[in-house]
UniProtKB/TrEMBL annotation:
It comes from Trichinella pseudospiralis (Parasitic roundworm). GO terms for molecular function: voltage-gated chloride channel activity. Pfam families: Voltage_CLC. This is Chloride channel protein 2. PANTHER family: CHLORIDE CHANNEL PROTEIN 2. The keyword Transmembrane helix applies. The gene is Clcn1. The chain crosses the membrane at residues 49-70, 127-146, 158-182, 194-214. It is found in: Membrane. It is a multi-pass membrane protein. GO terms for cellular component: plasma membrane. The keyword DNA-binding does not apply. Keywords: Membrane, Repeat, Transmembrane, Transmembrane helix. It comes from the Eukaryota.
Amino acid sequence: MWPLINNDWIILIVLGASVAVLSFAVDVAVSALNKARLHLYTTAAETNIFAGIASWVLPIVGMVILSMIISQRISPYAAGSGISEIKTILRGVVLKEYLTLKTLISKLIGLTVVLPSGLPIGKEGPFVHIGGIVATLWCKLFALISHDDKNQNYYVEMVAAGCAVGVTCTFGSPIGGVLFSIEVTSVHFALRNYWRGFFSAVFSAIVFQLLGILTSNYEMLKIFSQFCMVCF
């Protein structure tokens, strides 16, 4: 049982699925907050123009301030996109605090709060960081269960796969995710990481699309399942 748990491909499947679920959850939460903010503005604007202006400006300012407070209180290492830190980690520098559970929680909550504010902030950078954190946490958990200590290079390689998954969950492009992970590491990219990144990214894209189908159209889910049965 333990060799199976410690298998790299199992870890990559879990990595892809978990980041896809997190990405989908953020999208759902951001959509709900956006609808609430627009509903508040529409209701207030019908009263008078000043109430409309206040209901448009104050929620945006409040979201930005709340996101800043969350980052400072839970984990300051979650500030920024995280791409620069991931680049540094992939080049061999140990930055343990950037890959902790506290940083993951801070990043997810802060991102979910600030995205509906309308600021020009995308998901790509934060989810590259999130993908790297999730990859590290899963590797540590699997290593703990199987009592198999991994070296630092192994974690770095899995973080590279996490980068590919993070981009895939943002744009739905597994190939683009792998190419981005190559671009980030640029100096050296092991051949085995091509397949690791692509496998995990494809699985992540499938889970992300399935979640969208499940929550929007049951008939499309039936068509998708029939298509999968034909393929396999």
